[in-house]
Design brief:
By secondary structure, the chain is α+β, with helices and mostly antiparallel strands. It has two domains: 229 residues, Aminopeptidase, CATH 3.40.630.10; 85 residues, Peptidase M42, domain 2 (Elongation Factor Tu (Ef-tu), domain 3). 24% of the residues lie in helices and 26% in strands. It contains eight helices and 17 strands. Strands 1, 2, 3, 10, 11, 12, 13, 14, 15, 16 and 17 form an eleven-stranded mixed β-sheet that branches. The protein has a six-stranded antiparallel β-sheet with strand order 5-4-9-6-7-8. The longest helix is centred in the C-terminal third of the chain and has 19 residues. The radius of gyration is 21 Å and the shape is globular. The protein starts with a helix and ends in a 5-residue tail after the last helix. The relative contact order is 0.19.
Length: 334
């Protein structure tokens, strides 16, 4: 499992540039299901099971990660950029990046000793990427406007945890691949969707195509079980299993689905804070409406190149997805 997750995480694929991730996924699942790729780049899969599903169930994970897009190049060859997805600039300064998977650079900014006392208290601004050239023409020989850049990170095992970039949402991709390879009790749909980090865009068309009765959005969510955060603000805790949402900023989740998960007997926990959002926000509004839930990995330092997730929580997510898939596809949820 961890070897597959490592391969998924180390592929670069920001919103709108997920092609390499999609190619890898297709190579993994092509012998286990029927699939098609729509005009946006979503992979829409159908897995035939031993039993025909009474209700059509779709499980979704997004393929994109947060990153940067090159917007201009200065006369001295520095690359200016905009963030793609929600990124705290404080996490970017002096980090190594790779542009288009080929050109290396470092995110630069004003050195600490040149900052005013007021600026030292603020998030860094006026950042740029330094690729070691001396002029705009030299830079243009290597990169172009609109190119993608991703902050780089190693994939490492830290005790029970893993540390990597792109755990949001390559964990979800891992779970869908695992289900497509191993779950065959009932028919189901699996969608690997694009552009979640910039507005839940791919999920809207994927859900319209699959037209499910029920959907499960598989994603990562903030685990704030860290020093200096009060208990009521911790959202969810690592090592306590999958986080199951009752509400966030884009969805009020199906109560029967939420209760079924929480009472499943599988180790899991409520996402005890109304914040954030995921593809469920687009999926549940599709067609005539889709009954939807979210199962998420508690993730520390989410949307950074050094996110941390507990492997026990990933195992809990797989078990809970299998349980809910059986319950929903069999028609055993009113």
């Amino acid at each position: 499992m961890l070897d597959l997750l490592k391969q998924l995480c180390l592929i670069d694929g920001i919103s709108g540039d997920e092609g390499n991730v999609s190619d890898f996924i297709i190579n993994e699942i092509k012998d286990f299901c029927e699939y098609k790729v729509d005009n946006l780049g979503n992979i829409i899969c159908f897995k035939k099971g031993k039993h025909t599903a009474t209700k059509k169930v779709m499980l979704d994970a997004h393929t994109d990660e947060v990153g940067l897009i090159i917007t201009s190049i200065t006369e001295k060859g520095y690359l200016k950029f905009k963030n793609v997805g929600g990124i705290d600039n404080a996490t970017l300064l002096f980090k190594k990046v790779k542009i288009n998977g080929k050109v290396s650079g470092v995110i630069g900014g004003k050195p600490f000793h040149l900052l005013s006392s007021d600026d030292r208290k603020k998030a860094p601004k006026d950042l740029y990427i330094d690729i070691g050239v001396k002029s705009r023409d030299e830079a243009l020989a290597l990169v172009s406007l609109g190119d993608s850049a991703v902050v780089q990170s190693d994939f490492e095992i830290l005790g029970e945890c893993i540390k990597s970039k792109a755990l949001d949402d390559r964990i979800g991709c891992l779970i869908l691949i695992t289900l497509l390879k191993n779950f065959d009790e009932y028919d189901f749909y699996a969608t690997f969707t694009v552009q979640e980090e910039v507005g839940l865009r791919g999920a809207k068309t994927a859900a319209f195509s699959a037209a499910p009765d029920f959907a499960i959005a598989i994603d990562s969510t903030t685990a704030a079980d860290i020093a200096g955060v009060s208990d009521e603000s911790r959202v969810c805790v690592q090592g306590k299993g999958a986080a199951v949402s009752f509400m966030d900023n884009s969805t009020v989740y199906d109560k029967a689905m939420y209760n079924a998960a929480i009472n499943s007997g599988i180790t899991c926990q409520p996402k005890a804070f109304v914040s954030g959002g995921n593809n469920a926000g687009a999926i549940h509004l599709s067609g005539n409406g889709v009954r939807t839930m979210a199962i998420s990995a508690p993730c520390r330092y989410i949307h950074t190149s050094n996110s941390i997730v507990n492997t026990k929580d990933i195992e809990s997510m797989i078990s809970l997805c299998e349980y809910m898939l059986k319950k929903l596809a069999s028609g055993n949820l009113e």
